[in-house]
Predict the structure.
Amino acid sequence: KFFKKYHGIDKCHTVWKDTVMKGGVIEGPFGRDWEVKINRDRHNELKIPWTTLTNYPVQGTGADIMMLARLSFARRLKASGLPAILISTVHDSIVVDVPDEELIQPIVNMFHQVFDDIPRNIKKVFNVDWNVPMGCECKMGMDMKNMHEVKRNDRE
């Protein structure tokens, strides 16, 4: 069902598998590459760790995108003069400490604008035409357990 819904991913995985079986590395869209070690199973047959093969390029590319988002947000935050502090980035989350509740909406809008600009920034930094829709979700709360979503309000 997954491959029917996301047509073409199975073809991409097959190309990656064939590349690795020939001793090559998988190259991501931004130039990062991954070497996937081929193992042998209990019958001495070659076996590729499928999760590694399919996950590394996806997660690595996601990390590259988050790096662009984090840098873009940091620049915008600095230029805005708002007293928020970048705390950390974990996988697909950028955590910011916002000391005043009145600053939350401008920060949320800024994050959405960053993600609106991701395809343009990918083109500028990596010279890649990015056609994957980029979404952003902003949540706030005193801790990770007690959070609620805050929607952007800078456009209709």
